[in-house]
Amino acid sequence: MIKAREIQQERFKTIEGLHSNAQMGGREVQEICQISDAGRNLLKRAMEKLNLSARAYDKILKVSRTIADLAQSEEIKVEHLAEAIHYRSFDRQNWASQG
Known about the structure:
The protein is mainly α and 99 residues long. It has helices at residues 2-11, 26-32, 37-50, 54-70, 78-97. Helices cover 69% and strands 0% of the residues.
């Protein structure tokens, strides 16, 4: 976990006020959270199936980037996206069951 934080500090060292993936805005997400065509297809299917917003899309990418950092992977792989989508769907299920 410490290594992932170090990776993020290095990534954002030239951007004032930005220290972690969670703080990224839309522009940074587009620039930093590049995914493969397979990843894009997976995320698109999840967005449709779970009826997620564009904001949720960015959140999934941020979480995926963090998962990749924890795995010390320079790129966001399909398995990182799948894990982030799983967390998001699990979160939605828990939220819906409380209503």
